[in-house]
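User: I've been trying to design a sequence by hand for this structure and keep getting stuck. Would you show me what you'd pick, starting by listing the structure so we're on the same page?

Assistant: Good idea, let's start from the same input. This is the structure you sent:
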């Protein structure tokens, strides 16, 4: 069980996250929606401890995440992987090495500096790339991949951490609809097959509805909706997004992309690799 308890984050006078409390059982897929500036990214960053709460506490089972320091904090950041809108890969490094960087928190600093990854780790990295259907890109510089491929590399890197939770901050905001669907399908697959809790900020309602069993709506730093897609009726949408600047009702199409067919695919791979281990130099 993961829990936020009365969490507030201030930046000077500004309250970015305001007294947020909720529980998330292990294995849920949660979408967080809300207008720009509602506090979605700040909340995710506090969960991963990239930012610290001004008040309140964050708990994972019997660990108080918000007070961790040193190795405890590093272990939490390993258990709680995060992916970003802009992928955050090292563009000049090849895909395989980018994925292997996900193992850094499992290793001693000396080994990390020497960049000595074990055979098992390389096999694990190739398996993660295969799972996401991009093993053929293993030796390419990450910066030469399409946005959708780069986000899949970032997911593979996150999987290398063997995380218990996966946080995603607008993972599809920079992608076209086809790649957005591939990435969302991958997150759902990880959630369902591994039972990893997924919390993803999304700027489009239809994606949240299609993929998330639970939707948390934020406005002005507060949670103003917490329920299922079915419960997210037009009144709830108004509460989350308010009215337009001209006072007009919010039109759901304003928050919409075109993932029209999110039906689950059994296999998200695009192609089979004839010699995936050879790609890893094995
Ligand atoms: N490092 C910071 N310093 C000062 N203010 C900040 C900082 N980070 C966030 N804020 C402010 O906190 C509020 C919430 O920002 P946040 O980025 O969490 O919103 P968001 O819901 O993720 O928005 P978006 O949809 O645009 O990504 C905003 O008013 C923002 O300006
Ligand atoms: Mg944000």
């Amino acid at each position: 069980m993961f829990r936020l308890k009365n969490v507030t984050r201030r930046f000077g006078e500004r309250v970015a996250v305001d007294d947020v409390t909720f529980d998330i059982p292990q294995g849920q897929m949660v979408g967080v929606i809300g207008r720009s500036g509602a506090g979605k990214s700040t909340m995710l960053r506090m969960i991963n401890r990239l930012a610290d709460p001004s008040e309140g506490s964050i708990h994972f089972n019997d660990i108080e995440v918000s007070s961790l320091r040193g190795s405890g904090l590093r272990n939490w950041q390993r258990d709680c992987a995060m992916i970003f809108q802009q992928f955050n890969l090292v563009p000049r490094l090849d895909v395989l090495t980018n994925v292997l960087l996900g193992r850094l928190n499992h290793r001693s600093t000396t080994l990390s500096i020497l960049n000595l990854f074990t055979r098992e780790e390389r096999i694990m990295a190739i398996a993660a790339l295969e799972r996401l259907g991009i093993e053929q890109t293993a030796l390419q510089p990450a910066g030469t991949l399409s946005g959708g491929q780069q986000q899949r590399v970032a997911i593979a890197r996150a999987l290398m951490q063997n995380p218990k939770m996966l946080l995603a901050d607008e993972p599809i905001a920079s992608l076209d609809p086809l790649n957005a669907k591939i990435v969302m399908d991958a997150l759902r697959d990880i959630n369902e097959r591994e039972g990893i809790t997924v919390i993803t900020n999304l700027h489009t309602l239809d994606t949240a509805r299609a993929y998330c069993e639970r939707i948390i709506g934020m406005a002005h730093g507060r949670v103003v909706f917490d329920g299922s897609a079915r419960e997210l009726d037009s009144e709830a949408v108004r509460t989350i997004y308010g009215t337009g600047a001209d006072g007009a009702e919010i039109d759901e199409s304003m928050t919409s992309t075109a993932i029209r067919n999110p039906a689950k695919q059994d296999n998200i791979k695009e192609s089979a690799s004839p010699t995936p281990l050879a790609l890893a130099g094995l």
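That's my pick for every position. To get oriented when you compare it with your attempt: The radius of gyration is 19 Å. The longest strand covers residues 14-24.
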